[in-house]
Amino acid sequence: MATPQPRSNVAQIPAYVPGKPPTVQEGLTSYKLSSNENPYPPLPGVVEAATGAVATMNRYPDMGSSALYAALAARLEVPESDLALGTGSVALIYQVLGSFCDAGDEVVYAWRSFEAYPIAVAAAGATSVQVPVTAEGRHDLDAMLAAITDRTKVVFVCTPNNPTGPSVTQSELDAFIAAVPSHVVVVVDEAYVEFVRMDDAVDGVATYRGHENVVLFRTFSKAYGLAGFRVGYAVAHAPIASALRAVSLPFGVNAVAQAAAIASLEAEDDLLERVEALAEERTRVQAALAEQGWQLPASQGNFVWFALGDRSMELAAAADAVGITVRPFAGEGVRVTIGEPEGNDRLIDVAAHFRP
Ligand code: PMP
Fold this sequence. Notes:
Blueprint: E1 31-32, H1 44-54, H2 66-76, E2 83-86, H3 89-100, E3 106-111, H4 116-123, E4 127-132, H5 141-146, E5 152-158, H6 170-179, E6 185-189, H7 204-210, E7 214-219, E8 232-236, H8 238-246, H9 255-266, H10 268-291, E9 303-306, H11 312-321, E10 324-325, E11 327-329, E12 333-337, H12 341-352
Parallel strand pairs: 1-10, 3-4, 3-5, 5-6, 6-7
Antiparallel strand pairs: 2-8, 7-8, 9-12, 11-12
């Protein structure tokens, strides 16, 4: 008897491997350094705003998320028509593919990069064109340009790149965008933008202002510490932003998430002080690892990358044994989030005893 069959592309969708929760070990505080989360608890005003919204859970959220759109527009100095919210920036990835790709269209991105890209591309019925990152874990923008064909609809530039860490510079991005055909959507995925401390850093908002085909993806999940609530946003000129809103899930961003995101923007100065502390911790960890002889990519995100190939699972197990849970990518490398100083110290210790 015939049974219902999913579209043929569904079988091609790779599985998303989430960061593991910490393994509980008697007498040892464990640290989850596997999902690039912010280790700090939310600031008090954020908890109160979220709790307040919980009281009206019998009502649908404001479908237009009007207060959050207004807050973001004021904060970024962009018109509300140039914004699109999503349930995390991962949803925006689906939205951009769903609104710009027909079956078989090509989507170019660096690899390895964010693992949701191939999943979302396959789900959209589009075709992934993966361009290997360089030995330093950087985007090979020239090779990405060369990979663009007349089937290409979308290009992702993940900066800083998850999981390898490096960012592109503004000069590199400008040259890249100038060479990309103007009908191709260039997504600049800035999930970790708040952690960037470098010369010639990308100014995403200025970049979008200058280009009709550029869209920024940002998130409240990382620096803003709201990963559990699922809010992200896109910034693009109105034709792209309205396409992203058109394919969004109605009532997707829930009321608690909207309230918490607004309160987080209001508490931004304090939040960003914590982000500064994490950036300083990153520098401390990177310096200690360099001192031990490790040559890791120059990460600008809240994580570091050990390109250990076949020995990746071994490092992950060694980390697990001392109570830190990291994110191995079997056969490729290990990504470790910068977390609480104690967790970071344990990473430094594990790395010191692990000979590459
Ligand atoms: N982009 C990148 C590069 C990421 O690393 C992540 C989260 N791991 C996201 C987007 C999605 O984050 P969220 O859906 O939580 O906003």
